[in-house]
Amino acid sequence: MNGAATRREKAFSSTNGYLAAAAGVVLLLAAVYVFRSGMDVGNMVTLFAAVVLVLAGAFCLAGLFMLQPNESAILTLFGKYIGTDRSEGLRWAFPLYVKRRLSLRARNFNAPTLKVNDKRGNPVEISAAIVWRVRDTAQAVFEVDDFERYVAIQAEAALRHLASQYAYDEGEDLSANETTLRGGMDVVADALKCELQARFEAAGVEVVDAKLTHLAYAAEIAQVMLRRQQAEAIISARAKIVHGAVSMVEAALKGLSERGIVELDDERKAAMVSNLLVVLCSDKETQPIINTGTLYN
User: Fold this and answer.
1) Are 65 and 40 in contact (CB under 8 A)?
2) Helix 17-41 vs helix 44-62: angle between axes, to the nearest 10 degrees?
3) Which terminus of the chain is more solvent-facing, meaning fewer CB atoms within 10 Å of its CB: N or C?
4) Neighbouring residues of 138: CB distance < 8 A, sequence distance ≥ 6
5) Residue 59 Cα distances to 20, 45, 85, 212, 278, angstroms
6) How far is Cα of residue 187 from the mean position of the Cα atoms in its chain?
7) What is d(CA 233, CA 217) in angstroms, rounded to the nearest whole number?
8) Which residues contact 88 (CB under 8 A, 6 or more apart)?
9) What percent of the chain clears pLDDT 70, i.e. is strictly above it?
10) In this structure, how many other beta carbons lie within 10 angstroms of the beta carbon of residue 154?
11) For the whole model, what pTM was predicted?
């Protein structure tokens, strides 16, 4: 592997630490026993053997390390990457190996609220909660300087780019089925997750989930946009009211004509339609006026 290639994780199998710990304790006890025997007889060979046993016991104990569930150890020797151990419990490896622990658990990152421009150029406030975990330990440690800071910076960049791809809300300038930040939350969340995964790939980080937690117009245009939304809602409601009123008037005229209750000429029909529409579409209660004459007098 050359220096320009991306470094990938290599599996490393450590030794059972309980056996190594037991061997180390036994060797130290044997060294104590031999040392005491050497002191009694004054034999230098016996004393040398005791020293050797002490060093062997220390060698066994010095290589012990412990890993919790969903935790790994990155092993290096004089700056060279040896491998990553993902075993659990008490483990043993060569004492000169430098062991750096790295959590593999899922982590939460709450992105700060950012003020960005949406597709229309309107300033909006947006934030997200991102769940991520380290997938490749070698990439996380050796390919980027600080993978946690890398995640934070890339998450902010992804949010800014995402907001510029969608409009905040629907409008006449958008197509009928175009996704918006407010109306297509699930689609936007999926797009955010895909973009984050592409950005985190270099650091060996996997995106578990990503959801928007805050979405609103910026304070300087919030009131204007609120009035715009209210106006659109009023227009929509009025359109439905008028449509319903026309249908009711049509049904009334048809019923009168079919039953022969009264014969109405065009002018009387126009007056009746006008009166019914006023009654049905008015915001206030209408006051009835009794006409004792005729329409023409």
Assistant:
1) no
2) 160
3) C
4) 7, 8, 9, 10, 74, 81, 84, 204
5) 9, 21, 20, 52, 98
6) 13
7) 18
8) 67, 68, 69, 71
9) 75
10) 20
11) 0.69
